[in-house]
Amino acid sequence: MPSDITGTEIIQEKVSTGERTFKFVKGPIFANIVLADEINRTPPKTQAALLQAMQEHEVTAGGETYKLTEPFFVLATQNPIELEGTYPLPEAQLDRFMFNIYVDYPSEEEENTIVKSTTSAYGQDLEKVMGADEIIRLQKLARRVPVSDHVVNYAVRLARSTRPNENNSLPYIKNWVNWGAGPRASQYMILGAKTKAILDGRYTPSTEDVKATAKPVLRHRIVTSFNAEADGVGTLEIIEKLLQDVKEE
User: What is the pLDDT of residues 99-111, one digit of tens each?
Assistant: First the structure.
């Protein structure tokens, strides 16, 4: 149920007076990092409990609005193989996630490491790297990175080029896409490009940084048509064609 995530109101009785009042008990969404494992196994109304939390960083319950403690970060996993008893996330929910990251089988070397570390008595000693204040400071720093109009324009044109109803949309977009990416795609490509520039030690992002973030940002925001399925074309192929066809201005 949604209340299993957001929290619920319980009746609390004062022992001294016998007076009963409602008390809101916060759910697991009130955390800094939330992992929704196999999120497509929860029913739609439970998935919808994340909508306000992920976008507004707040939860409304019982007529009251509760702010979530920053930093707030949501990770969700889906198993693309098994579909029995699952509920695919609606586009409005998918759009809240900045990146869609595909995790394939590990390499042989990685799998050897996994097996060795998980089948022995070895225990990992965790050490604190940074606190909440430092994370928030770095998040604000990423937003302060300057970006040229040229780079913003490229990100916007790339996102708009996924929409089949645009006047200048490409023929294969009209044929293969039912619904394109919204404004959040442009925003997240720029935020991702800013972050990549910082990690690379540069003061401002370029269009190459936008291209580097295009696939994880756009992958889950493009709804393909029956024609694309019939032609064996997926969202990644569409994005790769757009990266070749949408030129910098």
Answer: 998 888 999 999 9
Match 């939330």 to its residue by tokens. 34
Residues facing residue 58 across a β-bridge: 67
How far is residue 203's CA from residue 198's CA, in Å, rounded to a whole number? 7
pTM over 0.70: yes
Domain residue spans of the chain? 1-97, 131-249
- What's the CATH fold of domain 1-97? Rossmann fold (3.40.50)
Number of Cβ atoms within 10 Å of the Cβ of 34? 18
Q: Looking at the domain covering 131-249, what would its CATH class be?
A: mainly alpha
d(CA 170, CA 156): 16
Report the distance separating Cα 244 and Cα 90, nearest Å.
Answer: 29
For residues 83 and 95, what is the distance between their CA atoms, to the nearest angstrom?
21
DSSP-derived pairing of the beta strands 64-67 and 58-61: antiparallel
Give dist(CA 227, CA 218) in Å, integer. Answer: 19
Please list, in sequence order, all residues whose beta carbon lies within 8 angstroms of the beta carbon of residue 131, skipping any fewer than 6 positions away. Answer: none
